[in-house]
Fold this sequence. Notes:
By secondary structure, this protein is α/β, with parallel strands linked by helices. It has 4 domains: 7-72, Up-down Bundle (Methane Monooxygenase Hydroxylase, Chain G, domain 1); 87-191 and 260-314, Rossmann fold; 201-255; 317-391, Beta-grasp domain (Ubiquitin-like (UB roll), Roll), CATH 3.10.20. It is 37% helix and 22% strand. The protein contains 11 helices and 15 strands. The protein has helices at 7-18, 22-35, 43-72, 99-106, 151-161, 176-189, 223-232, 248-255, 276-287, 304-314, 342-356; strands spanning 87-92, 124-130, 133-139, 165-171, 192-194, 201-205, 211-214, 238-242, 260-269, 293-295, 317-322, 334-337, 358-364, 372-375, 385-391. Strands 1, 2, 3, 4, 5, 9 and 10 form a 7-stranded mixed β-sheet that branches. It is flat, with a radius of gyration of 25 Å. The two termini are 42 Å apart. Residues 73-78 have low confidence and may be disordered. Guanosine-5'-diphosphate binds next to helix 4.
Amino acid sequence: MPTNVTPQFEKQREVYEETEDLAQRIVELEKLLALAPNHKGGERMLADYRKKLAQLKALIEKRREQERARRSGGGTEEGVIRKEGAGQVCLIGVTNSGKSTLINSVTNAKLDVGNYPFTTAVPTPAMLTLEDINIQLVELPGVFEGSHKTGIGRQAMSVARNTDCIALVIDLSQDTDWQMNTILGELDSARVRLNKEKTAVRVDKVGLGGHMIYGAQNYQGDIEEVKEFLQARRITNIIVRFQKPASFQQLVDALDTSVAYVRALVIATKGDVQGSVERFKELEEKYGSRFDIVPVSAEKRENLDGMSWAFYRHLDILRVYTKSPGKERERKPIVLPEGSVVEDAAAKVHKELFIERFRSATIIRENDKIKRRVVGLNYPLQDSDVIQLSHT
Ligand SMILES: Nc1nc2c(ncn2[C@@H]2O[C@H](COP(=O)(O)OP(=O)(O)O)[C@@H](O)[C@H]2O)c(=O)[nH]1
Ligand SMILES: [Mg+2]
């Protein structure tokens, strides 16, 4: 025995060590932790047990997920497009609805435009530059009833479920209700849910960057156990956002890949054709309460800027600019999830200097009544804040 522990603790340790059933083992280990000594010297042992607990929980979750995947016959394959830029928007619609034309008109891409079906057979990315950030647009192959069961459709849905925002592209030159029903039906079959209430925890698996945890103050527990859980699940690169107060179980649910919740909007295109005004009105009446609907015409280049900014708003991100005393602000922003605080920005600049040795932050808002304010690490940031950090 490394440290002084109580007889109850010793007894519970035996119970725990003899329990074989995984779920029960977790329960016993939790009991053990509750009985653990609270003095110095016991910390090391406690940390080891906590780590063990996280590993056991990860193991049981993995088994459950495999079980669910086996039952539903679906895999958990990742999207095939590498995410780049500040966020990713997927354009989805029936064939010939004008997706390629839209992407071509706001990026340098030269996607094939055709008056024949299924010109674009694989998810195709292009980069939209909006002021000082880039947004990745991805055209998904045209959907049709049952397309989620085809190889191409499955791949498209896998990209859709991992994206930051879905743009439903609705062609105003043909029946809109049929288009909406087809797209929504296919997404629903692929277990992609749109515009559901913001969940307490949002996770995004990414290609690099390690464990990026935002809103840690909302986590009801020790943030170390989150990191250990991710490690034990062998998830190396991920963004976890605690957007509201959240428990360990809510984190586990968020990592469940069988249902995806994605933000969405509608782009109503070909606004130049005859009958488009009436069809747009119908669309508004029917779906206006569920989605933002943005009318455009690629042909007449109408409202393309409005569409780009609508994408930006639906990514739920904000831009902040750092500034050194006596100098201009940096030209390139730091992009953070909405709801981020000063600490999240400081972590991106220099953790050791500006968090561990944090002194204060000055926020400069040119258009605000109070132009400069001195704040702490927990202060919530707004889009286009200029921030000056100082350390001891
Ligand atoms: N009138 C009009 N036609 C458009 C517009 N955008 C696209 N189209 C036409 O719609 C057809 C299909 O376009 P495309 O971008 O290939 O559709 P996709 O299959 O959804 O990628 C092409 O013939 C385009 O010229 C628009 O804003 N107005
Ligand atoms: Mg196309």
